[in-house]
Amino acid sequence: MGPILLGLACAAGLMMIIDGLRRRPAGSTPSRPARRVWTSADRTRAVAAVVGGFAAAVLTRWPVAALLTAVAVWTLPRVLGPDREHHRSLARIEAVATWAELLRDTLSSAAGLEQAITVTAPVTPAPIRAQVQRLADAVRTGVRLPEALRVLADELADPTADLVVRALQQAAGYHGGQLTESLTSLAATAREQAQIRMRVATTRATTRTAARVITGTCVVMVAGLILLNRGFLAPYSTLTGQLVLLAVGGVFVGGFWWLARASRIPQPPRILSAPRTSS
Questions:
Q1: Where are the transmembrane segments (predicted)?
Q2: Mean local confidence (pLDDT), 170-180
Q3: Which of 101, 124, 125, 176 could form a disulfide with 95 if both were Cys (CB 3.0 to 4.6 A apart)?
Q4: What is the distance between the alpha carbons of residues 132 and 148, in angstroms, rounded to a whole number?
């Protein structure tokens, strides 16, 4: 029972360390909203990780196996599964382009900028509707438009949205007369960026497929050895063997992390990042 409890304790400790490293230091102002929220899917994965670690510990009596199994069950679905963040980013870019076109069409009917924002908020595409609705509410309550737009940029935290927000800020501050033309150009640019990102994602899909194949091969090989040839793995039952297994597991973790990073599309730098405040 000792190895089982030790393995589960190591898995729980590692998860707490990762969670602590993801937190921001006190007194710093985040440049974007919190990216991770503890959802039902996260709870399911956490339960599956604990169960998987417990099963590995019972089956092998190796604390390191319990630790590595729990970490694998927790991380691999996100690393090898669909790139949901990429799909959300594409949807957000398309929504920004559509909103820019809505603003352009509303402004062309001789409406003011604040009125155009208020009118288009309810019909803004779903990926950014909540943020634009908060912008409209802030405008109605008397918040200065440049400040409200800066909050919108921080909430969206998207380089394409920054371009649109910057154009709106300039129009609000200097009463630019060519805002409709700028919005038309920015909408076209946003759609072009979305198409480029889709093409890049298509080329990087082969990397994610390779990662899935490598992972599946490793899992099948390890499971086959545990079930069919336990004698081959007997040296890992010693303390030295557990340390070697931990080192090998660390190499695999580093390799999977590199594969996940290589298959992820980096975001271009923002032009309207939130300023940090010193404590």
A1: 213-233, 239-260
A2: 68
A3: 125
A4: 10
For residue 228, pLDDT over 90 is answered with no
Classified as helix, coil or strand, 223 is helix
The answer for residues whose C-beta is within 8 angstroms of residue 236's C-beta and 6 or more apart is 62, 242, 244, 245
The pLDDT of 5-32, averaged and rounded, is 48
Q: Tokens 């409890």 belong to which residue?
A: 5
pLDDT at 174 over 50: yes
CB 70, CB 53: distance < 8 Å:
yes
| Phi, psi values for residue 269, rounded to 5° | -65, 145
AA identity, residue 51: V
Q: What's the confidence (pLDDT) of residue 132? A: 93
Rounded Cα–Cα distance for residues 109 and 114 (Å):
13
pTM score of the predicted model: 0.63
Q: Are 242 and 2 in contact (CB under 8 A)?
A: no
Angle between helices 2-22 and 63-80 (to 10 degrees): 40
Q: Which two tokens stand for residue 204?
A: 């990087």
* Cα–Cα distance for residue pair 21/157, rounded to 1 Å: 21
Q: What is the pLDDT of residue 136?
A: 93
DSSP result, 72-119: HHHHHHHHHS--HHHHHHHHHHHHHHHHHHHHHHHHTTT--HHHHHHH
User: At residue 116, does pLDDT exceed 80?
Assistant: yes
